[in-house]
Specification:
- The strands form 2 sheets. A 6-stranded parallel β-sheet has the order 5-4-1-6-7-8, with helices on both faces. Strands 2-3 form a two-stranded antiparallel sheet.
- The chain folds into 2 domains: 7-18 and 101-230, Rossmann fold, CATH 3.40.50.1000; 19-98, DNA polymerase, domain 1 (Orthogonal Bundle).
- With 235 residues, the chain is an alpha/beta fold.
- 45% of the residues lie in helices and 13% in strands.
- The model has no long low-confidence stretch (mean pLDDT 96).
- It is built from 11 helices and 8 strands.
Length: 235
């Protein structure tokens, strides 16, 4: 690698926080007549199709909070759940604001922050990401979102927007993510890349087959503490 990155930009859902486990726990608390893991998976499965509707122009620019609510309304119908009040549905939709961090997240981010500028690069909207950071103790230097760029990942405007924000070259930014499609898109824009293994991202009933090292990644780490160690960040 020719240069060290200056900015570490983090995917959030799945990489930094456990969306599946957090949602499953909240669904269980509501005592809904569904398998909580299946419900969490169904909610997340609606994510990319909903964003595709915005990209195609069939929906105007829409914050992820509102897309999450659209998907939630659909899956409540699919699971034949009619017992929740509007306030309960609204509060359930806000589960995305209070997702739990992985056990290594806060320590790993703190170590990385000691050497690099650390920012979010998430499709989540700004209010959601700010609430999540407050709730989970995530020590971001700056919260960047698709909402800032009016483009969802993997549109190039998102990755290049980080470099433009900090007035650095794309290769001085490194995307840190648990999703290889995200990393490939970032690499195509000239960013450095770091893959984080998250074997339980999709829940206990899903076995990830994509945790192997790839030639297109600059770093491959078990978790954020492992990445911090590879980048020579002290405890």
């Amino acid at each position: 690698m020719s240069i060290d990155p200056k900015i570490l930009a983090f995917d959030v859902f799945g990489t930094v926080v456990d969306w599946h486990g957090s949602i499953a726990v909240e669904v269980k608390k509501l005592s809904l007549p569904v398998d909580s893991n299946e419900f969490a998976t169904a909610w997340r499965d609606g994510y990319k199709p909903a964003m595709a509707r915005v990209r195609s122009g069939s929906l105007p620019w829409t914050k992820i909070d509102d897309l999450h609510r659209m998907i939630l309304d659909e899956i409540l119908r699919d699971f034949n759940i009619t017992s929740l009040s509007e306030s309960q549905v609204h509060e359930l939709n806000r589960v995305w604001h209070r997702l739990h961090p992985w056990m290594d997240t806060v320590e790993g981010l703190t170590r990385l922050k000691s050497k690099f500028t650390i920012v979010t690069l998430s499709n989540g909207n700004l209010g959601l990401l700010a609430d999540m950071a407050k709730n989970a103790g995530l020590p971001w230097d700056l919260i960047l979102s698709a909402e800032v760029f009016r483009h969802y990942k993997p549109d190039p405007e998102t990755y290049l927007g980080v470099a433009e924000t900090f007035n650095v070259r794309p290769e001085q930014v490194m995307l840190v993510a648990a999703h290889k499609d995200d990393l490939l898109a970032a690499k195509a824009c000239g960013l450095q890349t770091a893959f984080i293994e998250r074997p339980l991202e999709f829940g206990p009933n899903f076995s990830r087959k994509d945790l192997h090292r790839e030639e297109f990644t600059n770093y491959h780490a078990k978790d954020l503490n492992d990445l911090a160690t590879q980048l020579n960040c002290k405890f």
